[in-house]
Design brief:
about 210 residues, mainly alpha, Ferritin, about 70% helix, globular
Length: about 210
């Protein structure tokens, strides 16, 4: 991903990842990879759910189909890294992050679709920011893998945002972005009871 594209994403996000999160992530790379794998599965599932729910939008269907395939390919790559490193794929509690963002999603259409797509844009943008932030501190293999994800995750962010604008039918989505951005900042900066790929600064590691 070009520097300008990463700068665009960082400008879209309300804050940077706290240094304390980075420190804990580096100390818990097994949990980092397990939860990263979970995030890739969930991202694919979200895209597939959108495909089932909004069957009349061919642009959405095509972009979400491609996104789901890419996310499952990333899942395969993460579990291959885990296997090579002897990391067991075990169940861990779900992060509060995605569910916390979705609390701001309105329940009537097309507002529900617009907000769901904006939430998707924030999740993909935050993933990009965390890959880029962590990469310099990781071993060469994991560093190159995380850097390789930036291009596709950045495209996913842009796809979600462009689809949200389209769903709004020419109306500004700036107010909805602001509402969800405020929630995103709260979730990223508020201390979290557990470490996750999208958690706030962890207080306790389980």
């Amino acid at each position: 991903m070009a520097v300008s594209s990463l700068e665009e994403i960082e400008g879209f996000l309300p804050c940077k990842t706290p240094d304390t999160w980075i420190e804990v992530a580096l100390q818990n790379q097994d949990i980092l990879l397990i939860d990263h794998a979970n995030c890739e599965k969930k991202a694919a599932s979200t895209a597939i759910n959108l495909i089932y729910r909004y069957v009349d939008d061919f642009e959405l269907l095509n972009k979400m189909s491609k996104l789901a395939r890419e996310e499952m390919r990333h899942f395969e790559q993460v579990i291959a890294l885990m296997a090579a490193r002897g990391i067991e794929y075990r169940n861990i509690n779900a992060s509060r992050y995605a569910a916390g963002l979705r609390k701001k999603v309105r329940t009537h259409e097309p507002a529900k679709l617009i907000d769901t797509l904006i939430v998707g844009a924030f999740i993909e943008a935050r993933s990009c920011e965390r890959f880029a932030t962590l990469a310099p501190f990781l071993d060469d293999e994991l560093k190159q893998f995380y850097l390789s994800l930036l291009k596709s995750e950045g495209r996913h962010y842009r796809d979600y945002l462009s689809l949200a604008k389209k769903a709004a039918g020419g109306q500004s989505i700036g107010e909805r972005i602001a509402v969800i951005r405020e929630q995103e900042q709260l979730l990223i900066e508020m201390p979290d009871s557990e470490f996750h790929f999208h958690s706030g600064p962890p207080e306790i590691i389980k």
